[in-house]
Design a protein that fits this description.
By secondary structure, the protein is mostly helical. Helix 2 packs parallel to helix 4, helix 4 runs antiparallel to helix 5 and helix 5 runs antiparallel to helix 6. The protein starts with a helix and ends with a helix.
């Protein structure tokens, strides 16, 4: 029984750390000076982030195996593929980078929507729903935008990372809340048993 609370504690810290790092990375991206950012550097930023994000979610899905783990595994593989494409494309353009980010946002948004329905009824399940809708909306904005500029792509990347990071921070608090609730119910059950024995 103790392993459940210990596991939840570790999971909460992992989500919290990943979320804070993502938000900080997004803030750094949004604050970068555009005059020294070239297409190759931008492609490396986008590709590196997508590959790292994909690997984290793929490994997390295979180790943790929540009810909706297949969706995260698929999303992880797709994110790694999109990141590798962004890095490996020698003559990448701003439009291509915007399309890669846009489709990544849409895929992750759909996966969050699946997660929302898979966890429906669980406390704070709607957080997945909100993040999913925000990601899909931002992804569609990236795909329909015709005048793609460096500023737009940088803003899109920063917003993408921050949305994902905030989502992970919220999930960390969800897991922590579930752990605290489980610990309280365990304490209450033990107290009831002691009362009954007395």
């Amino acid at each position: 029984m103790e392993t459940v609370t210990e596991y939840a504690k570790r999971a909460a810290w992992i989500y919290l750390t990943a979320g804070i790092l993502a938000v900080l990375f997004g803030a750094v991206v949004l604050s970068l000076a555009l005059d020294w950012i070239g297409l190759y550097t931008l492609a490396l930023l986008i590709g590196g982030f997508l590959m790292a994000w994909g690997v984290v979610h793929l490994v997390g899905a295979l180790i943790d195996r929540p009810l909706h783990w297949p969706w995260h595994a698929v999303g992880g593989v797709l994110a790694v593929g999109a990141g590798a494409l962004a890095v490996a494309w020698p003559d990448v353009t701003l439009f291509v980078l915007a399309v890669i980010i846009g489709w990544s946002l849409i895929v992750w948004g759909i996966l969050d929507l699946f997660s929302a329905f898979a966890t429906y009824g669980v406390r704070n399940w709607w957080l997945y729903l909100v993040r999913g809708l925000a990601s899909v909306a931002l992804g569609l904005l990236a795909l329909v935008r015709e005048d793609v500029t460096l500023y737009f792509v940088m803003t899109l990347l920063g917003a993408f990372v921050i949305i994902l990071g905030i989502g992970d921070i919220l999930v960390a608090f969800m897991v922590h809340g579930a752990k605290a609730s489980w610990a309280r119910s365990k304490t209450d059950a033990a107290a009831e048993i002691q009362t009954a024995d007395a």
